[in-house]
Each structure stands twice: as C-alpha cells, then as structure tokens.
Amino acid sequence: MRKASGMKLTNRLVAFVTIIVICAIFVIFIGGAVSFRKLGQDYLTHYIDGIVEVIDQELADPQGAQSLSRWLPKLLKASNVVELEVGSSSGVIYAFKGLQTVNDPTILQQSHYTLNHNPGFYINLKSLPPYTEFTYSIGAMSSISLAIAIIIMGLVRGVNWLRQQLYGSELLEHRGRLILAGKVDDNAVGDEQEWPATASLALDQMIAELKDARQERSRFDTFIRTHTFLDQLTGAANRVLFDSRLQSMVQDQETHGAVILIRISDWDELLAEKGKDVADELVQDVGMILSNQIQRYPDTVLSRYFDAEFAILLSQQSAKEVKLFTNQLLKALERLTPVAPLQPDNWCHIGVTFCSSGERRGRVMDEADMALRSAQLQGTNNWYAFQKDQQYEDARGSVRWRTLLDAVFNSGGPILYQQPALALDGETIVHRELLARIQDENGVLIKASRFLTAVEQVGFSARMDKQVIGQAIELLKNSPVNDSLSVNVSVEALLEKEFVRWLRDELLQTPRTVLNRLSIEIAESGLVKHLDAMRPVVRMIVGLGCKLVVDQAGRTIVSTHYIKDIKADYIKLHRGLVREIDQRQENQLFVRSMLGACANSNAQVIAVGVENEKEWRVLKQLGVQGGQGRFFAAELSVRQATKGNDKPDKTLFGR
C-alpha cells in the first residue's frame, strides 16, 4: 500500500535549493583556492627562474663570479630562499643558508637547475612556499566575506519567497493528511489559498460526491432492510422477521415467552364497503395502540402478521405478566371505535400461547391461532389463552426481584462468565465477552436474558454495570497483556449523568495499557434511539483508550449512518440473524447490507451465536471478520477460563 510522505513539499524544495547553493559556494571556494595556490606557485617558480638566470650570467663573467657573495645573499633573502648551493662535479663553489627559523622543514620547496652558460654547473635551492607567512586579514578577506553575506541574504530571501509561493500547496497537503487520518467531514471544503486551485476544487467536489454516495448507500441499505423485514403501512415487523425471531427464541437455551395474535374481524367486508384507505387507517390506529403498549417491554417484537392480523412476541415474561399485559391490551383496543360494518363490541380478538426452548415454531403459531379462534367463538371482544402444561410460572414480582438483586450486589456482584470472539482463522481471540449470571435463593444460576428486564424495571442498571465494569478492570490488571475483555453497558445507565461521571473517573484512574484491552458494548437500538445524547459519551470512552462495540446489530431496523458517526471498532450481529442463516436468504441480504455499510469504515463485523459449521461457512462467504458462539467455544466461568479451558475445542464441535 502506498504511504504518504512524511516531509512537506515546501521543505523538500527549500532543502533542495539550499543544498544547491551551498554546493555551488563550496565548488567556487575550492576552485578559487586551488587557482590561488597555483598562481602563487607559478609566480614563485618564475621569480626563482629569474634568479637562476642572473646567477648563470654572472658566473660566465669572471668578475661577476667574484662579486656573488656581495649581492646574492640580499637577493635570496628577499626571494624567501632559505638555502642555495652552486657547484659542479669538482665541488661546491658557493653555498648560502638563511638565518630565518623554519618550524617545519618539510614545507620547503626544493628545486634543481643546470646552468646553460656554464656547462657542468648546477644550482640546488630550498625556498618557502608562497603565502606561508601570511595571516588572516579582515581587509584582505572583506570582499570575500561581503560576497558570502550577499549570497546568504539572497538565499534567505529566496527561501522565504519560495515558502510564500508554496503556502497554498502546504495547505492542500495538510488537508490531505487530515483526510487520510479519517477527518473527512471536518475538511470537506478547502481554504481559498490552497494551490493548485484545480486540485483543491476537484478534492472538494469528490468529497461532496462521496458524502452524497454514503448517504445514498445508507438510505438504500435502510430501504432494503425496511422492505425486507418491515411492514410498509404500520412500520412494524413483517411476518418474515417475526418468524425469524420466534425461531431464534425457541432454539436458544433457557428461554421462554408468549405469542399473542390480534385479529380484526370482518376485515374483508370493511375493505369492500369502505375501501382500502379507510381499512388502512384502522390498521394504522391498531398498530399505534399496540406499539405504545409494548414500550415497557424492551425485547418485544410487534409484527403485522397478515393484512388484518398482528402478532406480538413477549420474551422472558411469566404467565401472570403476559395475562396482565393481554388484559391491558384488550382494554386499549376497545377504546378505539371502528367504523361500520365492524361491530364495536365484537371486532377484535386475541389469542395467547406460551412457548419455551425446544418447541417447534409452527406448533407455537398453530396454538396461538387455535386460541384466537376460541376467542372469536365467544362473540365479543375477548382474549383466550391456549391451555398447555409448559407455561412458565414465575411469580417473582418487582419487589422480589429488587430483594434478590440487592442481595446479589451486596454480596460481591454477579458471577461472570465469558465467551471468546474469534477472528476468521478460528484461533486468534479478538476479545472475551463477559456475561453476567446471578444465583437465586435456591442457588440456581439465572442468565442475563432472564433478569436484565427486571434490572431495568427496578432501576438497577447503573448499579449492575458499575459492578461488572469494576470486576472487568480488576481482571485485566491481573491478566496477561495480550488478553482483552468486552463488557456490556446498558444505554439506560449511560444516560445517567452520575454514572457517566463515575465511569469517567474510573477510566481515568486506570492505566492506559489496561484501557486499550477493554471494550465497551452498547446495544444498537438504544444507541441509535438516543444518538445525540450518546455521542459525547461514546467519544469520551474512545478518547480514553477503550474500544467501542455495537451489540445486537439488526435486532431492530435502523439506519446504519451511525457507524460512520461514532466510529465503532466492532459491530456484533444479533444472534437472530445468524441462526440458520444458511437457510434464510433474507438474513443473508441483511448481513450483506450491514457489511456494505461498514465497508468504508474501520468497523469489523462479528457474527454472534454461531452454532454449526454451515452457518459459519455462509458467514465467511458473506464477508464477516469474526465469529462468536458455541461452534467455537462454550460459555465458561471466568475462573475456568483463567485455567486455560476456554480454547476452541475443535473435536467437540466437529471441526
């Protein structure tokens, strides 16, 4: 992958010009010094040649040879000749040695001459090199110093001018670095001084088109999911989504709930007499009433099962609570006055059946339909519950739940289990998700899916999350440096200012090396519903070094634009999408849509609830980046996991 250069364009050009100028000055100085030395050497040689010529002529004259000792020493001293020797094969006829002190005799220049007018005679002499006795002089070097100063001033002015001319390119390069760092939205429009202007305008246009394309992609993905899983008239789930969630619930372990069917009688007559608009308006009114009634049950699915029939899936609720809810539902519907030909006292009927793990989805829906027909036979607005022995009777109300939870929190908090999330290779652990369990009065373990609703109802969400986060941080401090943990935090707790302040202080007191191994999981539905309030909280969590995980993605149909907004590290698919995905084309379409929404972000998609190899094979073909479920490793208590028993067991799961 091509990487951006770490050196600015202006710095490159300035460095290039400076090096060129310095090299030019250096070459000129070296050349001048060599030339200066050569000129001095030639001058000395020429001067000594003249002395030798004079001596040669004087030796040819008998009278001149006798006067050498009188005038020659003065000439030699003035010419910086230290030693001179005139001789022939017969011997030395004249010798001279100056009185000046030479510290380093090796610097003396030796010369040998043969005399043309006096054959057989020679002259050997030693002289000082030129400029040996000269020292630095400001006056002598002033011109050179002035030239250097002018060159430096010109260089500084030229560099400043070059920086001014290239300031626009620096702005453009700086914006490019910010865009590569992921800050596209903050740098969508460039400064007017950016240069080249055409490149800046082209970048502005491309970013604008990219933003439009992303929004269009998000709208298109939402459109696909909406038309695949939602009813277009009421906005409730359609039959496909309802059947998928019911199938997922009955296949999970230790789950129970109820299916409630609501049917509008004489629908065909209403449609024939009043037309589609009036009939659709009645359906919308009924859908609004049902939607308002289920608000206090967070994990409830409302579906328009047929044209005149709605279905509600209540999970983890006791038979007593389901019956109370059904009575309230019927009273709310009776306050609605239907138009003729519907009879005000005999237009809506409700059928209820209970279900639990291990039952068949088709059998459950048949029981609900039989209960609905029984209610219709009574001839008035009424409801009827299918009689079966598998009703989940849990008489624990809010008071008993509060007492139990309070005892759990006072005794050290919930018991933590963990399950690893693995990368595509099935070996590399992305993180270990902590799962809370509590013990009831009889010592029986209760899963989070059963008691979390009660935690929210009694207002203990923040208290629960504080204890789980505290235990997770202590585990990370005492665990190996390559071990990462993920903790589920409820949106209800994050909406409390007191809890957010506690969380901030707790994270600030924790070393950065520990926070980098901690992931915070937030449910998608609550995150999107309260996105404006959650945005600063999420930024605080990420800014302190924790990783952000969006959990239960796909449980509700929401826009995926939040992925780019909050910059999540991981997106965990809801287990209802993963269950039997090899047999459900609509779930595969949803997962493709989610992967497409994460394509231009750093978020990695992890499939939760993988139970067999067929599901995992399809998920890998779709392009998920990781998986979590019993196919890789079962849920183990933290104590067992610390003993090394949480490694994926390939033989156990047929891998």
From TrEMBL:
The keyword GTP-binding does not apply. Keywords: Membrane, Transmembrane, Transmembrane helix. Residues 255-388 form the GGDEF domain. The chain crosses the membrane at residues 12-36. The keyword Lipid biosynthesis does not apply. CDD domains: EAL (cd01948). Residues 398-649 form the EAL domain. GO terms for molecular function: cyclic-guanylate-specific phosphodiesterase activity. Gene3D superfamilies: 3.30.70.270, EAL domain (3.20.20.450). Pfam families: EAL, GAPES4, GGDEF. InterPro entries: Cyclic-di-GMP_PDE-like (IPR050706), EAL_dom (IPR001633), EAL_sf (IPR035919), GAPES4 (IPR033423), GGDEF_dom (IPR000160), Nucleotide_cyclase (IPR029787), Rev_trsase/Diguanyl_cyclase (IPR043128). This is RNase E specificity factor CsrD.
